[in-house]
Design brief:
By secondary structure, the chain is an alpha/beta fold. It has two domains: about 70 residues, DNA polymerase, domain 1, CATH 1.10.150.530; about 300 residues, Alpha-Beta Barrel (TIM Barrel), CATH 3.20.20.70. It is about 30% helix and about 15% strand. The protein is built from eleven helices and 14 strands. The strands form three sheets. Strands 1-4-5-6-7-10-11-12-13-14 form a ten-stranded mixed beta sheet, covered by helices on one side. The protein has a two-stranded parallel sheet with strand order 2-3. Helix 1 packs across helix 2 and helix 4 runs parallel beside helix 5. The radius of gyration is 22 Å and the shape is elongated. Bound molecules: S-adenosyl-L-homocysteine and iron/sulfur cluster. S-adenosyl-L-homocysteine (SAH) binds next to strand 11 and strand 13.
Amino acid sequence: MTLSVLEPAAPAAETVSQRLSLIGRTRAGLSDALAEIGIPEKERRMRVGQLWNWIYHYGVRDFAEMTTIGKGLRGALSERFTLDLPEVTAEQISTDGTRKWLIRMASTGPRDRGAEIECVYIPEVDRGTLCVSSQVGCTLTCTFCHTGTQRLVRNLTTEEIVAQLMVARDRLGDFPNRSAPGGAFVPKDGGRFVSNIVFMGMGEPLYNFDGVRDAIDVISDNEGLSLGRRRITVSTSGVVPQIGPLGDQMGTMLAISLHAVRDDLRNELVPLNKKYPIAELMEACRTYPGLTNAKRITFEYVMLKGVNDSDAEARDLVRLLKGIPAKINLIPFNPWPGTKYECSDWDRIERFSEIVFRAGYASPVRTPRGRDILAACGQLKSETEKLSARARLMLDQDDAAAA
Ligand code: SAH
Ligand code: SF4
């Protein structure tokens, strides 16, 4: 594993924060930017198209490179705006090629140091998957998930969600005619390094519905970042009322974090189940817009030793999913400091997956990737937050001692 903690970029003499970045904006957002600098309405659509192409297709970092746009307009844009990406404060590269970036978002006010989120790139033989976050932290409190213990929570903006893909493509040299800083690989076959996106980082994407929907519009636009909706998966812990709208408005692949086949256990593991129990969740899945055998729902099931990993539960899982075009994804639990759970033994996972497989489901066990850099799902949590969580634990202990 290699870790580089990057030097913070020296702030320019002028107050950079006064100029907003255009990175991550929707077409409407870019149009607003043009209105701000006095571009007449009838010209804006055409100008938005030009900006869109330079920003999202070519990934340019400087208005001066936008050669189809006249010098005057480029100057006016750069006086008011930037093409800055959020700052990457640390990059870790695993021995298996997985990369994890700690990204600091722009500050939203004088008392905000800028929220930090993590984003992970996982290269595989036939694809490169980027795992992105939809929120800083998560308001839900799934008992096996590290993100759920984070105190600070807010929705990421559309721009901040899109920026994660922009950062990844930038650092991987994954834009046309570009190579990565440090001379990383460039695709020779016209393929992209980031070919798939999963919303499986921090946060519950369906609690940030509008932000995620608009970000997916930007990401999937085929004149720009061009990542098709079939290659984007939104994972939810089961926000039932938003599952139909997700299919209608975003048209992406759906993943459900199921993890248990009985309400009593799921209430404990995924407390949101008390609000939307399994039967309601299954009904929302059955009626998911666009569901076909070619567009199946992925059911995620984290393997917790002695908790949810018996043969009987594997059989119940198969029964529960009957009639739903589904894939089952068994996830070895990733332990984190302080957790009460353990990962199921390997032969138990194999036995569980065998039962599921014999019932006709492909059940790939998600190979743990980037373990040496704590890059796996459920471990996406910034160093600063880890420290504050530790501090909080000490406070809790003090409270307990005082009681
Ligand atoms: N909030 C959404 C998406 C983010 S979590 C959701 O819950 O679906 C992405 C996936 O990682 C979920 O399936 C989640 O249950 C799983 N996960 C969380 N913590 C984990 C851990 N410690 N080990 C393995 N998987 C975990
Ligand atoms: Fe939130 Fe998903 Fe973690 Fe549950 S598993 S706490 S919903 S991020």
